[in-house]
Each structure stands twice: as C-alpha cells, then as structure tokens.
C-alpha cells in the first residue's frame, strides 16, 4: 500500500465529503480586449469521485485546472481544498504539492530526458517527504508496480518508453507526493485507443484502491463516460450543463451538449476497448 512507507497519508475524509470547490471562478487575461477565458464557474469534486470537465478546444476547461494550481491568474472567485481557501485573486496557491497534482497530456514534456525514471520518482518522493534520494529509492519499485510497470523500468530514460508507459510514469510521479487529488489534463488523448483503455482502467483501479479524487479534463466524451461520476460541460468560457455523467451524456438538456454528442461517431469502440486487459503496448 502506498501510504505504508515513507510517511503516512492524510487522515481519511468522510465518505462523499467535498474535496475541491471552485466558487464563481473568473479568469480574464490582460490586454486590449480583456479576454475572459472562464466566467463565474462553480462546481464541487467529492472524495473518491471523478468529475469530468468537457468542452471543445478553447472552452476554458484547462484554464480552470491551471487556475486551481496557480498556473493561470484568478480575476475573481476562489478555489477551496477541504474547505480551506487555497487560491483567489492576488493569492497564489501554496502548499498544494502533497495535496493536488497536475498530470499533463504530454508526459514527455513533463519528464526530464536526462534522468532515469527511478531518479525522477525518487527525487519527487524525497521532496514531498523532506528526506533524501537514497531513503526514497526503495519506494520507486513500489510506485512502478502500482501503475503496472516493472522495477526494470526504473533504469530506463523517458525516450526508451512507449507513450502509454510514459503516461504511467507521470501518474506514478503524482502518486509519489501522496496527493489524493489529481488533475488529469487530456492524459489519454495522445495515445492509441487500445492503450487509452489500459490507462483508463489503471485510473479507475487507483481511484478505487487509493480513494483518489480525479478532475478529468477532456474533449472526449467516451473517456468521460468511462471514467467519471459527474460532468461539467463548458461552452466557451461558461458552464452550460452539469450533472451525473450517465444522465448528461444519455439525455443532455442543453443544445451545446447535444451538439458535442452529435459530433461523436460512436461510443461502442471506446466501451469495448475499456474492457481490454491491463497489459500495455
């Protein structure tokens, strides 16, 4: 169990407790036209749940995730984590490393090409635990095992891994901090469909076993349907529909949501692929 060595996890939250609150969040970028990327967005993510942020390119879904961790400016509104205000206008988030982790679409860009995978994981774990690299090396094999990789992968460099394996390493690095909330930004969009399925299966298993909370940013409604309990639909800059994922995707109430669904040829292939075994290619 990941919480068993090198420092304990935080005390369990009550089942269904609100983990992350985005309250009337507005993000506007300075300039002649004062572009508003997100306007008055509000939603909650609950403990052990997965919430999907969906919308076309430019809808503001990634901007919201970046504002949560301080990578985009907050014009008004605030972000609360476990009831504590962690981000608002003029206040950059602090102390979130061991509570929230951002996993990017391009795992290659987030991994140091000059460091072996084991070194990357040990360094991240050491920073989070306040210890030494040597003290954390024993944890590397454990982290790799949790994401379905062998201890031998610790000796490899990022370019020696497949795309799916690199994304598993990125997830392992997020887990190395013992964060219980992950922001997943299009993490399967660059992968083949069969590999997407194994990564989605992995995320579902980790959410169940480690009781993680996931904020899933995706333009792929099939991915959201397979992974998420609830969904927030963003039409450029604003939320237009929210609710349980199954209900929203089966019987959308807003015309924009219906147009997104109409643009998806079929969900059959994604459903079938998600039932593939956990082996990576």
Automatic annotation (TrEMBL):
Which GO terms fall under biological process for this protein? transmembrane transport
Per the record, the similarity remark reads:
Belongs to the ABC transporter superfamily.
Q: Which residues form the ABC transporter domain?
A: 20-261
Domain of life, per lineage? Bacteria
Output the InterPro entries linked to this UniProt entry. AAA+_ATPase (IPR003593), ABC_transp_ATP-bind (IPR050319), ABC_transporter-like_ATP-bd (IPR003439), ABC_transporter-like_CS (IPR017871), P-loop_NTPase (IPR027417)
Q: Name the PROSITE patterns on file.
A: ABC_TRANSPORTER_1, ABC_TRANSPORTER_2
Q: What is this protein called?
A: ABC transporter ATP-binding protein
Instruction: Name the species this protein comes from.
Output: Jiangella anatolica
